[in-house]
Amino acid sequence: MKALYNVQRRTALVRRRTLITTLLLLVSSALLVLLPACGSQSAGVDTTAVSTSRGVMAASIITKAMPPTQTSCPANGQGRPAVTAPLAAGNHQVVVYVDTSSTKSMLKSYDVFTRQTATLVSVSGNAQVALTNAQVSTDGQYVLFLSGRKLQMIRKDGQGLQTLYCYPQRTGAPSNLTNLLWSPNQQLAVFEEPPAQGGPAGPVVRLLNLSNGHVQTIAHSGEHVAIQLEAWSGNTQVYYTIYAPPMMALYNNVYALNVMAPADKNSREIASIVGNLWDMNLTPDGQTLILSQCADVLSGSQHQQLSPSLITAQAANGGTLRLIYGSHVHAVVQTRLANQTLLLVVRDSTYLVGPQDGLWKMNLAGTDLTSLLHGHIVLADIHTAWANVSRSGAFYAAVNRPLQGASEAYVGPFNGGTPIRFIATNDTIAIAGWTTR
């Protein structure tokens, strides 16, 4: 009887434990169902929800004052290591942009939650010093940009302006730096500078190591052609195209430049396509190359983009093209990736501003095409995921740059809805990217 009692007791304990385990599994399953729903709400239009979702991350970083920095130019041909100090991430989604008029060029930020604008740095609007190529770092802490012949960096709160490299002043030669791209790990920057001898040689591609200030030449353009740096693939390769500057006619090839290899053995062709190449993007995992192209006609001194348009995908190292989108009516003039979503700018060549003109989005399968913003839209030149879409994934930023009238800058809900116009100006507006505050 005692043995039977022990068996019954053990059986009861097993049943009890099984019941508890089952209940715990049911509760866990319910939580798993609820958590994604809460996550999807935090990526909505409500800026309060977006702010709250980043509170834990913001609290983990303690802000420190920037150490002393230098804005003077380093010695000719030399760079300067970047000076950094941590800054709390903050809760608000903030878009950084450049506002350039005939008298002033300013790096600014706009807080979507407070709808307040702040100026990070301001210089003369003269073309020799105007701010260009501004881009936000991977961690959202810093902005790297060009100011004439200077390559500079500043923290997102406007502290620590510093000059990391300068193109030497030379008599009779243009001195502006161009085509700046910052690596994902924030350690390297590639850019172009004019050749020391002037034309007909093309620009020289240089590599700056921000950790130690070392600068080296990694590529030379041929005569009467130029290299157009497009996007980083990881931290060792930069994808680029080439074009003829007088006519701005793009060649139909995409190349990969290995910044770690010897300068004469570091480039290889990735893709060759028929038609004019207007844009290219790499998926965040670096595995897929997205190409977009449309027809191009030179009318007087202006280029007119015309249909047909194609958006295709292929393996990043080359391979068979796969069609994502095609149109015989509209011109797709710009594309950008935001995670697994493709942003595309459409222009209808039969109208000054056609009924379909504007910013659209769709997935990489070519479905769920959705209109976001109407107008003569321009996206950021930078190809990072946070250049056009906020860190939370809730908002996009774009500029409506009509052929006549004031330019307008917008932020809008990425899932669709009414956008907010946060600036209307006759100045030139260029989006640099998203951070937080």
Could you walk me through the main structural features you see in this protein, from its secondary elements to its overall organization?
The protein has 437 residues and is mostly beta strands. The protein is 13% helix and 45% strand. The chain is built from 4 helices and 29 strands. It has helices at residues 2-42, 47-53, 55-59, 385-388; strands at residues 93-100, 104-111, 117-124, 131-136, 142-147, 150-155, 162-166, 178-182, 188-193, 204-209, 215-220, 226-233, 237-244, 249-250, 253-258, 267-272, 276-282, 288-299, 302-315, 322-327, 331-338, 341-347, 358-363, 370-374, 377-378, 395-400, 407-413, 420-425, 428-436. Strands 12, 13, 14, 15 and 16 form a 5-stranded antiparallel beta sheet that branches. A hairpin with a 6-residue loop joins strand 27 and strand 28 (420-425). It starts with a helix and ends with a strand. Mean pLDDT is 83; it is low at 1-59.
